[in-house]
Structure formats: structure tokens, C-alpha cells
Amino acid sequence: MIRKITISINQKKILKNFSICILIFHFWSTGMAQSDFREAFIIDNNDDTLFGFVDFRNDYQNCNKCDFRADLDKETITYLPGDIKYYRFINNKFFVSKYLKDLDKTVFLEFLIDGIVDIYYYKDFNKEFYFIQKENSDLLRLNGDKEIVKTDDEYVRTISGWTKTTTEFNMLSYKHIGILRYLFSDDKETLAKTDNVGLNHKSLINIANTYHQNVCTNQECVIFEKQLPALSFNFDILCFADYSGFSIDNSEDYEKFSYKNSLNYAAGIGISIRPSRFYERLSIYLQVLYSQKRYSSDYKESGLANWFNYYSSDIEFDYLSNKLGLKYTFPAKKFQPELFINYAFYYTLSSSAYRVKEENALTTNIYNYNDDILQVNYNGISIGAGFPLMKMKKIQLIANLQYEYVSSNLMSSKNKPQVNLNATRLGLGIRF
């Protein structure tokens, strides 16, 4: 059965708003691609050291190319794996050019720790790889896949003597554990810890460092990877002036009202969360704002013999505006602007849709109505920008600009009223 699909005016309006947001997201993504050159040095294939600046990007890009500038205003030179031996950001990440037999190509491996045992990391487009090397041995891949390990044959004593057991026991093990146990077999303390080692930066660096400290007394172990917490947080206290619009569609009682934009206020909190292995410039962003909105409208319908009907409406409701999305922080020397894009969800706390109809004919009749059409929740999209103003120790003052559009019924139905809200906010935030 083929159903005919029609798009209402309201749906077109919503699609237009979302198209605008997608366009903005495109420019936002383009902005994310801008360069972030930081102090660094490279060592070429002739063992010459060149100091300058290297573009600090995500793990995938840094593992596959090195964009170098001798000075910030100089032309960018791109080195591919094999073109140079090493490159390193000052007091930060260190990358080594190596051929990987497993992947059959030369890449830039991130050098995590240099000791008796070295640990390396490589990020492909959609997969992570860890490698280990003990002194001058081959580079071994640490594979997190599970394998079946068979137990040794066991003998039991019976009346007739010692008999080999016929029962086999299988257990699941991670392949990288076996490699670690082999490499660390000469140190009992390290060996005892290998079963709990996960395939991640912190766990591998810790086990390699423990082993080095136990077996080597004349050489320091060098950890290149910055030791970061698993998650880093920023907290914002926010206060906004809120200039917003309101409309109700698909309702005979309300759709003729043209509500005036109103100035309201909103306050709440924002939280930025960045996992340590997440792209440094990107954060997961959450925001919760409380606000009250007030709108009013009236109009007049004239009839015969100076008869007329006068209509008025007052809208009031309190809500929580909840947002979840991404925040991008632009690189800058001192103050770093921010850009947000979020899914927005309004949770209605209380509401009142009040209207009055006044009939003026031979007599005047007044009818009062209090409807419950606002007792719904709203979904939409929000974009915004933050502009740092000043910083005092660990507290930062930030100017914020936001725009959001939400609707009570994104898939519009002719039989269901649709409430639309948009808001432009300007305010200040205090970041801790």
C-alpha cells in the first residue's frame, strides 16, 4: 500500500530551521579544521634537527602526517611517514616513523614510553593499535582479541596407577596478556600485574614503567605521553537575557494570535567534559537553564452593524532548557573562543494558556478559557558561541550568545496543535 506523504507549512518551517542549523554546522566543522601550530622540532633522515612549529591535530592526523613550519608566517611543509625520522611537540607528544608489518605501511607511531620496554600507539581512521618492543627485539602488536587457551594435560592417581585425564578445560584470554607475560617473565612483581592490564595509554605506560624501575637501575625511564586525568571538567554558572518568540499552529483557537516577542531571563549551569583520548579541542557539552516566559496577543474581528468580537490571550510557562552536544574551542594564544551545537529539550514545569473572547453585539458577552495545550515537552536544536573576556587565576569570565529553536511536534499532524518557540540569548558565564 502506497501512502501519500504531504508536507505542511509548519513542517517546511521546521525543515528550513534545521537546514540553517546544518549549514551552520558545516561552517562549524570547517572552523574545526583550522590549524593549531605549536612549538616543535623534527629530525630528518640525515639526523639534522629543525626547530619550528607543527600542526597539533587529532591522533589520526598526527599519526599520518606532519605539517611543519619553520616560523608561523612561513609556508607549510608536509612530511609523510618515512620522510623524516621523528617529530615532537615541546614537552608533549613524540612521534616516530616506523614500518608496520601488520599494516604493511610506514606510519608515525606515537612514542608513549621509552625504557627497557617501549610502548607505541597508532590511530587509524576507525581503529586503535598498540605496539611493544623490548630492547632490540621485533616490534610486537598488542592484540585485544580473545583466544582459547587449553590447559596442560593432568594426571590423576587411580587404583591401577597414574592415568592421564581425558577432560579438556578451555578458558578465554586476551592475546596481549600472553605477550606481556612473555616479555615481563623475568620480573615476578610485574608478571603478577599483567592479567589486569588493559589496552589503553595509562595501563600500558604504568606496567612498562613498573618493569623498568624493577629491572633497570642505571637508566631513567622517559614517559612522553602527558599524564592526563581520564576526564577533565569545566563548570559554568550562566545568566542570560532572553529575547524570544512564540507561536501556535494547527489550532483554530490560537493560530490567529500573533504573539509579541518578549524579553525574559534565564539562568543555569553548563558542564564541559573532555575524555583524555578525545580530540583536545572538542568537548561534550551539557547545559541546563531555568526560565519563565510570558507572551500576549490580541486581535479584533468586525461584523455587521458595528458588531465585533475582541480576542486576547496570555501565555505563561516555566521550563528547564536542557542541552546536550559538542563544544569546539578555537586555538589562540590567550583567549580561546568557543562554538557549540546541541540537541535542545525543553521540560515544562508549569504552564497556562489563557484566552478571552468578548462578543459585542446587542449585548456584551465575555467568555474565559484556560487550555492545557502547553503541557508538553519540546525538542529542537541550539547553537551558540562563547567569547572569553578576562581571567583571574582559575576563574574565567565568558560572554555567551545562543540561538535555539524548539517545537512541540516536529512531525506535524493536522489534528494536533504545534507550539513553536525560538530564543536569542545574550549573557555572561563564570567558569571554574
What would you call the shape?
elongated
Rg, alpha carbons: 32 Å
End-to-end separation in angstroms reads: 58 Å
**Main beta-sheet annotation:** 11 strands, antiparallel
pLDDT averaged over residues? 82
What fold name stands as the CATH topology of the largest domain?
Porin
Runs in which pLDDT lies below 50 for 5 or more consecutive residues are: 1-11, 25-32, 166-172
CATH architecture of the largest domain: Beta Barrel
The number of strands is: 24
Number of helices: 5
Account of the 3D structure:
With 432 residues, the chain is mainly beta. It has helices at residues 9-32, 59-62, 175-183, 188-193, 201-215, and strands at 37-44, 49-55, 66-69, 77-79, 84-89, 94-100, 105-114, 117-123, 128-134, 140-142, 146-150, 155-158, 161-164, 170-174, 222-223, 231-249, 262-275, 282-302, 308-329, 338-360, 364-371, 378-392, 395-407, 418-431. Strands 1, 2, 3, 4, 5, 6, 7, 8, 9, 10 and 15 form an 11-stranded antiparallel β-sheet that branches. It has an 8-stranded antiparallel barrel with strand order 16-17-18-19-20-22-23-24. A two-stranded antiparallel ribbon has the order 11-14. A hairpin with a 2-residue loop joins strand 7 and strand 8 (117-123).
